[in-house]
């Protein structure tokens, strides 16, 4: 039986080196796991057999720099959702994106909210908890308040 997304994420985050095969039932889930695995430094190959996707992952031990520099990256966010299709799905994807930023190493130094993205920073926004975590992690926020 294929593993749940939470188990996959936990296994990949804890993996310093080695190989792992993940079984996924859906194409979308397969692509999500592959992207996440690659973001964690894994090489990923996919085989499809018997209506299942077998994602073979391999990770070599990373060499960490002696004194990592603080990120100077700025992330520009210009809309309150990701994609142009279903609005509700786009809002879910934006929240997932912001949560991914919180997990990122190194984290970006600044988030710049422009245009419709300013709505994400206002009272009643579904992502305020995520933004609070990012702020507590030392990420600076800037916003264009003209809408």
Q: Gap between N and C termini, in Å?
A: 49 Å
Overall radius of gyration: 18 Å
Helix content: 25-40%
**Order of strands across the widest beta sheet?**
1-3-2
The rough form would be described as globular
Topology pattern, helix = H, strand = E: HEHEEEHEHE
Tally of structural domains: 2
Largest sheet: 3 strands, antiparallel
Mean pLDDT: 82
Low-confidence stretches: none
Strand content: 15-25%
The oligomeric status of these chains comes to: single chain
Tally of separate helices = 4
* Beta strand count: 6
Structural class: alpha/beta
Structural notes for this entry:
The protein is α/β, with parallel strands linked by helices. The chain folds into two domains: 5-59, no CATH class; 74-143, no CATH class. Helices cover 33% and strands 23% of the residues. The protein has four helices and six strands. The chain has helices spanning 5-13, 27-39, 87-103, 128-136; strands spanning 18-24, 43-49, 52-59, 74-77, 110-113, 140-143. A three-stranded antiparallel beta sheet has the order 1-3-2, covered by helices on one side. Helix 3 (87-103) packs parallel to helix 4 (128-136). The longest helix is centred in the middle third of the chain and has 17 residues, at 87-103. The radius of gyration is 18 Å and the shape is globular. The N and C termini lie far apart (49 Å). The model has no long low-confidence stretch (mean pLDDT 82).
């Amino acid at each position: 039986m294929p593993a749940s997304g939470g188990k996959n994420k936990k296994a990949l985050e804890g993996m310093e080196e080695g190989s792992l095969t993940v079984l996924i039932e859906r194409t979308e889930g397969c692509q999500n796991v592959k992207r996440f695995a690659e973001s964690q430094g894994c090489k990923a190959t996919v085989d499809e057999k018997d209506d299942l996707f077998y994602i073979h992952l391999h990770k070599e031990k990373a060499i960490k720099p002696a004194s990592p520099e603080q990120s100077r990256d700025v992330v520009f966010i210009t809309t309150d959702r990701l994609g142009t299709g279903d609005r509700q799905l786009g809002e879910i994807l934006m929240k997932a994106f912001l949560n991914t930023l919180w997990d990122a190493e190194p984290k970006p130094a600044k988030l710049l909210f422009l245009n419709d993205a300013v709505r994400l920073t206002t009272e009643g926004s579904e992502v305020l908890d995520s933004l609070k975590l990012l702020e507590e992690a030392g990420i600076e926020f800037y916003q264009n308040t003209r809408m």
